[in-house]
Amino acid sequence: MNTLQKSLVALTVGSLLSVSAQAAMDYTGQPYVGIKAGKFMVDVDELDDPTAYGVYAGYNFDSNFGAEIEYVGSNDTDVDTGLSGVNAEYDLKTYGAYGTYRYQFPNTALYAKGKLGFAKAEIDVSVSNILGYSGSSSNSDSGVAGGIGLGYNFNPNMSVEAEYDYVAEDVTLLTVGAHYKF
């Protein structure tokens, strides 16, 4: 083997050992904060699906179990009223508290995540017409919520996650996020 080949083999083996060591790290007592963005999927024909954005924070009690809180909001999204001269829009907000479970796939930086807890969804609707009349209304729903996802640890402090969450009746959420572990 020439020197270049030996260097490449050493670099490859070192990278694999680094990823394996990173995957086996103990995250006991580790807090984290993150941001996420994606799409609310609202199962009501007249409502368009709004863009979602949010923040979250959590704490890993050990390598598998943790707790997480989050806030996710949306942009103002049009409502199809079917009436000429009537404009309506809505925004959606969710607040949640969850217990989490992470399964670290062996010899890789990839992990699966599940969460189960309680969430509150709030919707604010505003309506106006061409005559200048306007009004608004708010509604909320709360109950059991949860989600599943996949994540990747870039290093001991940085991860990305893709999640699918059930928030409330007729409302699910698909997001991609990144978080920093302290």
From TrEMBL:
UniProt keyword annotations, A-Z: Signal
Keyword presence, Signal: yes
Top-level lineage group: Bacteria
First and last residue of the signal peptide: 1-23
Outer membrane protein beta-barrel domain mapped to chain residues: 12-182
Protein name: Outer membrane protein beta-barrel domain-containing protein
Organism of provenance: Psychrobacter aquaticus CMS 56
